[in-house]
Each structure stands twice: as C-alpha cells, then as structure tokens.
Amino acid sequence: MQLTTNRARFGLPGTLALHLRLVAGWHILLSVVGATAVAYLWLANGGMVLWLKGISTAVLLMLTIASVLAVPALLRRQHRGRTLSLLVNYLGFVFALIALLHYAGVFIGIDALANTFGRGVLFFSVILAGYLVHGVADRFRDYPQTFRRLQRTGNWVMLAGLVAFLLAVGLIPGLLAFLARLGEPRNALLFGAVLLFGFVLWLMWRHEMASLLGEKSRDSEMLNGYLFLSPNLLGFLLFFAGPLLLSLYVSFTDSDAFGRQNWIGLQNYGEIFNLSVAPLQSPTQLAGEVLDVRVYDELTRFTLFGRSYVLGAQDKLFWIALRNTVMFVLTAVPLSVVPALLLAAVLNSQVPGMKVFRTIYFLPSIAAVVGVALIWRWLYNSTVGWINYFIASIVTLINQLAGAEVLTDPQIGWLSDTKVALFAVVIIAAWQWMGFNTVLYLAGLQNIPKSLYEAATVDGANSLTQFFRITIPLLAPTTFFVVSTTTIQAMQIFDQVYVLTNPPGGPGTSTTTIVLYLYTQGFRNFRQGYASSIAWVLFLLIFGLTIFQFQRQRSAAAE
Amino acid sequence: MFASQRLRKWLRYSAIYLTLTFFALVMLFPFLVMLFTSFKQVSDTFIFPPRLLPRVPVSAEVAGFEQPLPLYRVEFEGDTSEFVLLERSVRVGYFAPPANLETTYLRELDQAPATGETAVVNGVEQPLYRVELDGAFVPMVLLNRTAMARFANPEDLSQTVLAPLRTTPPVERIAFTLDNYRSVTELHAMDRSLTNTALVTIGVVLGQLTTSILGGYAFARLQFPGRDRLFVIYLGTIMVPFVVLITPLYQLMVMIGWVDRLASLIIPWIFTAYGTFLMRQFFLSVPKEIEEAAIIDGASRLQILWCIFIPASTPALASLTTFTFLYAWNSFFWPLVIINTGNENNRVLTLALSVLGGRAADSPNLVLAGAAIAVLPPVLIYVLGQRFFVESATSSGVKG
What we know:
The complex is a heterodimer.
Chain A: H1 2-10, H2 14-43, H3 50-75, H4 79-103, H5 109-137, H6 144-168, H7 171-182, H8 185-205, H9 207-212, H10 217-250, H11 267-273, E1 275-280, E2 297-304, E3 307-313, H12 316-347, H13 354-362, H14 369-379, H15 386-402, H16 421-445, H17 450-458, H18 463-474, H19 476-491, H20 495-500, H21 514-524, H22 528-558
Antiparallel strand pairs in A: 1-3, 2-3
Helix pairs in contact in A: 2-3, 3-4, 4-8, 5-6, 12-16, 12-19, 12-21, 13-16, 16-19, 19-22, 21-22
Chain B: H1 2-37, E1 55-57, E2 59-60, E3 69-76, E4 79-96, E5 105-108, E6 114-121, E7 124-133, E8 136-152, E9 160-163, E10 172-174, H2 179-186, H3 190-221, H4 227-237, H5 242-256, H6 263-266, H7 273-284, H8 288-296, H9 301-312, H10 314-330, H11 333-338, H12 349-359, H13 364-384, H14 386-395
Antiparallel strand pairs in B: 1-10, 2-3, 3-4, 4-5, 4-8, 6-7, 7-8, 8-9
Helix pairs in contact in B: 2-13, 3-7, 3-10, 3-12, 10-14, 12-13, 13-14
C-alpha cells in the first residue's frame, strides 16, 4: 500500500501516466459526441416515440456528464475518475456490443439455429455421455491413475461432442455470415466502437491503474458488485422495470402497438369504471328507457328496499370477465387448497409408499397447461367422454341399488352449457394445482414438532382435535402462502380457458376471464392502451388481495 | 383387546391407502387417457362406452378374396361366432303373412319376387311377395325395408347371416399404432416445434442461471452503495403479474424487430428477480471464512464464485434449473402473443399444440399424440430427478 502511494506521488510509471492522459482525451471526445448526439436527437425530426426519445436523452446525458466529470478527476489522479471512466466505458462497450450483435443479425440468427438444431441434438447425447464418464470418475478417487484417465476421457468426449454439435448446427456458415455482415459500414463502425471501449476498459481495469489511482478495497468491492450485477441489472431494467413503467404510461394513451400513442389521460380507466344505476318503474321495464343506451349496456338488475334498479356499464364485458374471474377464484382456490391440506395430512402419517403417492400427486403441475387442457377437452366430450360416462355409470348404479329411477343421467354439456363451462375450467385448475399445494403443505407439516402431538395424546386429545387444535393453527404461514399464491395464479387464469373453449371465453361470455379479455382487447382489437389499463386494474386487485391476506395472517399470528 | 387394536390399525391403514389411491387415480387417469388415445386409430376414438386401451379390427384371409375381410361377432344358430363381412349393404325387408302380421320374417328383397297379386291389409291394398319359409313358398306382404350387412363363416362361405352393421360388434385386438406420432410430426411439424422448444428452454435455463448466479453473488456477498435498496426493488417486482408487462414488451419487440423471432422467447426471459433472489438466499448460507481465506490467497471474485460458491450450491442450482425449465417449456401466453402472425417455423410446442387442437379437433388421437409430445419430456425428467422438482416447489415459499 505504502509503495503504491509513493509511486503515484513521484509519478514513476511513465506509460501509465500517458495512458491516463489518453483516456482523459478519450473522455473529452466522448463528451463532445454525447452532447452532439443529444442535440441531434432533438433537432433532427426523427420518427421516435416520445418516451424512447426521453430515455435515450437521459442515458446519453448521464454518460456525457459522467464523461465530463471523469476528465478532471483522472488528471488529478482521483479514484473517482476511474470509477466514472469504467462506468462510461463499460456501458459504451455493452451498448455497442449489443447493437453490433443486433445489426449483424446474431439475435435473428437464433431462428437459423433452430432450423439446424434438430441435426445437432444427437451430438448432445455425446456431450451427455462425456459428462457421465466424467462423473463416474469420482467413484475411482482411490485410484489416481484411473481417476485421471477417466476424467480426461470424459473431457475429451464432451469437447468432441461440442465441436461436432457446433459443426452440425452450422457454426461455420453462421460465422461466415457474421463476418460478411461485419463489413457493412454501420457494423464496422460499431465493431470499432466495441474495440475502443473494450481497450479503454482494459486500460482502466488493470491492477496497475487501480494502484496508481489509489483504489481502496471498498472501491474494488463496489466495482465488482456492480460488474457482477450488471448483466442482471441491465436486463432487468430493459425487460422488466422499463416495460413496467412504460405499461403505466401506455395505460394513459390510446396506443395501438403500431406507432399511434396519444396521451388521453384517465379515459381508459374511465371507460372501465363507467357504471350507472337507474331506478326502474317495474322489474321488467326495458333498460333503454332509463339508461343512455349509446353509452351503457345493461349489466344486471337488482331490488333494494322494494325498488328495482338496473345497473349499466360502458364496458359490459369487463364486468362480466371480472365476475367470471371472481367466481373462478372463489371456487378453484378452495377446491385446490382444502383437499391438498387433507391429502398432506394423510400423506404425513408416515405410511410406507408415501413418496410414490407424492410423486404422482405432483405430476399434473409439471405438465404444460395447453396439453392438460386438450386432454380434459376430450374427457369432457359430452357424448363419448369419460366424465359423462362415469356420471352415467354412477347414476345407473344408484338406480339399480335403489331399484327405481331415483336419478336421471344429466348428460352434461361441459363445454357447451353456459352454466357449467366455467366450472369445467375450475375442475382442471383444481386438479392441476392440488398436487403442488399438497407438496407445500407436506413441507409445512414436517416442520411441526412431533412432541406437540405426543403431549396432546398424553392429554387425551383425539386425532381430530389434534388436527384442528395443532395442525391447522401451526400451518397458518403455509396456508397463507398457499392461498395467496394460488389466488394470484387463479386471478390470471388464461391458458386453460383459451385452449379449452371455442371460441375462447365461450360459450357466449361464460368463461371470459380478465386476462382473456385483456388479450382480446390488446392483441385482437389492438387497443393496447386499454389493455394496459385493464392489466393495471388487475395488478391492483391482486396487490390489494395479497396485502389483505397478509394483514389477516399477521393479525391472526399476533393473537 | 389386542385383536381389536390390530383391527383398528388395519382399518386405519386401509382408509389411508384407499384415500391415497383414489386421488392417485384421479391424478393419473387423464395422463393414461392421453397416452392410450395417442396410440389409437381415429375410428377407435369415438366409441361409447369409452375404452382405455387402443384396439384395431381383426380381419381374416378368405379364399377367393384378395384383401383380408374384417371379422365381426354375430349370432349364428344360437351361438356367437366370428364371421367375416361379405357385403356392407344388402337390401332386405321384413315380410309377414297377411293373416298374421305379428310374426315377421327377414328376407333379402332380391329373393322375394312380387307375385303380382295383392292382399288387403289394414284396409290398404298391398302387393304380395313369394317368401321362402321352411322349404315352401308363402305369399307375404312387405312391412318394412332396410339395409343390412351380410356376414359369412370364413371357413364355409355358404353359412351366412344378415345383421345390421352398426350394432354388430367387430372382432378387435389390442394394438398400438405409431401413426399418430408420425402424422403430427410430418403434417403438423411438431418435430420442428419440439426442437424449437428445446432450444428456447436450453437458452433460457443457461441464461437465467448465469445472470442469477452473478447477481445473487453480488447481492449476497459484495458491498456496494445502493445494494439494499436495489434488492428491495427486485423483491417487490416478484409480485408483479406478467400481464402488466405484456403490452409494453410487445411494443418493445415490435420496435427491435423481434416479433415472430425465437430471440423474443429467450432474451427477455433470462433476467429474473426470482432466480436472483433464490441464489442470493442460498449464497448467504455459505460460510464467510472460506471466501476470506481465498481472497487472502489472491483469488479473484470470479474464481471464488466458480470454485467455492457454485460447487457448494448444487441444490439451489438444481431447484432453479427445474423451475426455469418448466417455466420455459410450458409457457404459452407470451409465445401466443409474439409468434402468432404466421411464422409457423418458429412455433414452440405449446403454440403448435394449441393450433393442432383447433385444426384436428375431430381426431383426438392426433391431438393427444401432440399433447404427449409436449407433456412427456418434462414428466420423464421429473421421474428421473423428482427430488429437485419437489425442492424447487418448497423452496419457492415455505423457507423463503
């Protein structure tokens, strides 16, 4: 430490000092370029969307300012200068690299890879075989020679498999195409930028430079921290945080996804929540006589204190979708949680073979919802489906036992009857979620100390009392987690409905859920602004529900 | 006393196993239906009552016929015999003597020529036919005509029976056909969808592991300003439902030209708050002493991460891998939105399956073969490494 400060004071390393001046010059150049770019962005009349223009300006300005600040700090050999320089050059490097990959067609090239990927799959098994050989080597740790030979063989097999795989999927033509694209002026410029940023980055990152500028361990940890986090953070900002904010913005516009995006304020939310209640002369009076039918559709009628009212909504479908979703949540959540708790309690009784049952119960939650929905669509077939066959068999059995026609076969049209279609979806969801919840409950149950039950048995409590007095209260945190995650999942039900019903949401509007309605608005009618506002309403609903459950769980725990 | 205790124990066990087995059947049955139906021929699917195992009709070689003839179970001289189908549609009629309309006789129309005479039955004048009855010819009236199939004993073609084809059960044997798998891969390009899904899944899993490990390590072990605030933001976003992001993400993809491209299924999904959170929680439990010793030895942070943290966190990595694998393999909503404007080559399995479900709605054997292709790979992997799946389920909440 002492030595480095001395060297820095006497300015011993001549090349390093030169490098430092070069980097300072580079930052002056970058500041000029950045400022010019910002000016160009606002003066030239490009067709950029406003928010994108704003974000680009903010990023460019930030980098320019950092660049400007870096210059004096670097010349005064303050470590702050290195930090700023590293920040600017790292971001510049990443942006230039991504832009290069983008314009040289690497991301689009994934499609070409998918085209040839099938040919390479076979060589994947070679890689796997090599990995297995490598793994087997661990068993021969006591025989160093065999161990090493096996490990080396495994490595070579893996390498050979990888090379064969890369050749099979067309690495060489892909590389050639990439190199050819590199020759285009824009790409060559970007490639130069990547090299320059990379070079300066390397200059500044080096130990020598760090010592020269007096890096402390705190600085090193900060730089490492942000470096490690950066892939995650940049992706998170670009594909999560950014879109999240953008979504809020879009929900206040009339966006159609293809360029139109005018600010319309709260109009979307106004349309969703535009309800109107009007008193009726008689319960059968036409709604059109009391409601403005140009705006409102009749949603429902109700009677209060002997007077009839009609409720109209501007967007009737949203409210129907909301009702369906709420109905779905209120049935699917209990149906997938209560049996899960009972099953877990039974499974927890330590009978042999419990693991086999647990494996089976978990199976539905692994399967793709689309596949599951198609299987159930076939089971639900009203003429030759298994479910109606089981119902018919049970009805016949009961009638035979009773010796009379006590029941008639209902012949349920599961997917064509507006009264049961939603329940058909509920059954699938409950079937698919139950096993997952069982596993969660089982994990919770295994955390309850056995001694509690033993003590209760000594006190003479029977197993039913134990279940209600020990198991359920102690499982409250698990229950909170299970119920809230299942609720969140249920509020967003989409896949099952989309695949199961034809047209999606049918028959009529009986299975239209909020997310399905959002999809229709956003990607069928391309009212993306409106779809965004529906999404935010749903988000707030989910958020409110979770907070509500959390509060209840906490107050219950406090008692 | 002792006996009653044993009885109680036995009763308890049977109750437990009955419950468990019942639910196990409920859970397994749809998968069995999927599997067996995917091996069926289409003619075998629309049959009531439904049957689980796939069956094919049996035929027999008959002298004088080039093709083998299908066998049916018919009533012949009081016994049920297996006869071949000779003719699908023979014009037959129910005849009765005018004096006694209650007893009817089934005869082929060709073998009962009109006599030219008539008889009055129920006040209506009707033509009479020459109907053979026990070697004699009796004039009868025609009550009803219909069509029936002619079945014959394959050994002795002169023994024939007339019976309606619809209600005659064919002779069948259990046989599994792979044709459905062949036609969904060849005609509906499910093989391409399978490799697409595999590629996307591999990309997402590898990418997510990389960013989560790096980010998790930074959050767990490195001190930098703003770390804790950033972490809280990360945590908060786990709750945000995906649908909130769908419109802006779509617009973003339109802007960079990734609509219909596989890149849109991979790149945006390799950065997750959840994976980062999971890895951070695990890395926190790795003892600090080893790391400090390594730093004193001059190891770089990357070396420490690679040589100490990654080997120590195999369970967490396996959990994250299974979780991400299932998520990527089964995702449907986003592919539906982004790969739905016509680029059939880039369809992933779930999307191809949903299209198949619409197109081949009347051949469940095809649809369920497609479903099997989508559903079975995760199931197989699950059977091999189920411990990790169960751990990924429990680590998602109870511990966190």
